[in-house]
Amino acid sequence: MFNLSERDPTMKIAISILFVLCSVSAHAATPADLLAGYRTEAAQQTPGFQPSAQRGAEFYARRLGNSAKMPSCSSCHTESPTQAGRHVVTDKSIKPLAPTANVERFTDPAKVEKWFKRNCTEVVGRECSSAEKADFLAHLTGAR
Ligand code: HEC
Questions:
Q1: How far apart are CA 144 and CA 6, in angstroms?
Q2: pLDDT digits (tens, 9 = 90+) for 70-120
Q3: What was the pLDDT predicted at 13?
Q4: What is the mean pLDDT of residues 45-63?
Q5: CA-to-CA distance for 76 and 93, rounded, in angstroms?
Q6: pLDDT computed for residue 131 by the predictor
Q7: Contacts of 135 (CB under 8 A, 6+ apart)
Q8: I need a surface site. Which of 39, 51, 61, 144 has the fewest CB within 10 A?
Q9: What is the pLDDT of residue 28?
Q10: Is residue 108 within 8 Å of 29, Cβ to Cβ?
Q11: N-terminal to C-terminal alpha carbon distance within the chain
């Protein structure tokens, strides 16, 4: 009975599927998980750091001046992160960035990091700090 998995091929398959599911879910996250992660990182640099949706909203709309074509995050993502956006260069449509309007947002840490890196470098002229990312997410997760 204890060696069921060795003998029973159905059980072997079931266990393999379970392993695959576990490794997939290890990469999935919720916007709250990501916010908590950035908050922890930021608090290591600035003890007592608390994410601020207000600062995040200001950052989202701020004209940072690094690029004339895309002065702010809102240039492509529109003034409201709950709305679909449009890429200022390619004119391709972009789904809403706020998780309240698009459940796929901020569930894939690798994707989130990739786009923070790319967009911050273009718009801000450097990578965003953990504090800026935490504020940005605090704004987006509360956006209605
Ligand atoms: C030039 C247009 C453009 C600008 C400006 C822009 N973005 Fe984006 N952003 C995109 C595109 C394109 C994607 C990827 C396509 C998609 O996911 O819909 C994206 C995706 C993202 C994502 C991925 C979120 C997820 O979970 O899917 C984040 C985070 C993000 N942007 C943050 C920012 C921040 C922060 C700024 C301002 C510093 C910014 N973006 C400015 C075009 C832009």
A1: 52
A2: 999 999 999 999 999 999 999 999 999 999 999 999 999 999 999 999 999
A3: 59
A4: 97
A5: 9
A6: 98
A7: 51, 52, 53, 55, 56, 59
A8: 144
A9: 85
A10: yes
A11: 55
Which residue is associated with the tokens 């916007």? 31
Q: Using CA atoms in the order 108, 112, 118, 124, what is the torsion angle rounded to 10 degrees? A: 180
pLDDT band at 36 (very low <50, low <70, confident <90, very high): very high
Q: For the chain, give the percent of residues with pLDDT over 90.
A: 78
User: Looking at ligand 1, which atom is closest to the CA of residue 64?
Assistant: 38
Residue having the nearest C-alpha atom to atom 24 of ligand 1: 112
CA 2 to mean position of chain CA atoms: 43
94 CA distance to ligand 1 centroid (A)? 8
Residue 11 has pLDDT above 80, yes or no: no
Ligand 1, residue 106: give the atom nearest the CA: 26
Question: Is the shortest distance between the CB of 94 and ligand 1 below 6 Å?
Answer: yes
Measured in Å, residue 6 CA sits from the centre of ligand 1 at 48
State whether the beta carbon of 98 lies less than 6 angstroms from ligand 1: no
Tokens representing 75 are 């240039």
